[in-house]
Amino acid sequence: MTDALAIDGLRFAWPGGAWALELPALRLAPAERLFLHGPSGTGKSTLLNLVAGTLVPQAGSITIAGEAMTGVSGPRRDRCRADHLGIVFQQFNLLPFLSLVDNVTLPCRFSRARRDRAVGRFGSVAAAARHYLGALGLGEQASAGRRVLELSVGQQQRVAAARALIGGPAVVLCDEPTSALDTRNRDQFLDLLFAECDAAGTALLFVSHDLSIATRFPRTQSLGELVEAAA
Description:
alpha/beta, 5-stranded parallel beta sheet, 4-stranded antiparallel beta sheet, 10 helices, 9 strands, 42% helix
């Protein structure tokens, strides 16, 4: 079985600095869930950016669903990201001039594979977006045509999660995705996230400081443990 995510011999340093991150190995199988934690400055966000291809390591390899994210051109990284990655950013990166549905369907505009998977499951990309928004408690806002700037921070975070899930990517990366949610909405968010990842066979790499939710993950590690265990 092809790993959803495979990392080997990863080394990254900022220009003129010492190594900021050294990770000998990391594997995620399809549908596997990993809760990754650690103090600020240990490289968690750097790791997510390396996996996403927005940073390029000085050494090592990263593959997603068997496709290389290292040693390839920028356009190849962009294509792999569009086809195989869903990302929930800390800053959300939503487009304020678009409707909620249009924000959620953006990945399907850039990836035919994501679009085909969404249409195959829900009949259309718009129907897929409404499914995720409704499951996250934003059905009324979507139906009313509300825009991102009309939503609370917590609601915007859920729109970002729906965008990451649409089209059944191989891996979803989450960077502190529950920080703006109360306990009820956090639990609802996690229930949907887990259910949708299971349904699509999507692996989940979830970075958070909130150790109270770590027990919901079958695999929990600090980034420091991953480095030390493989050293």
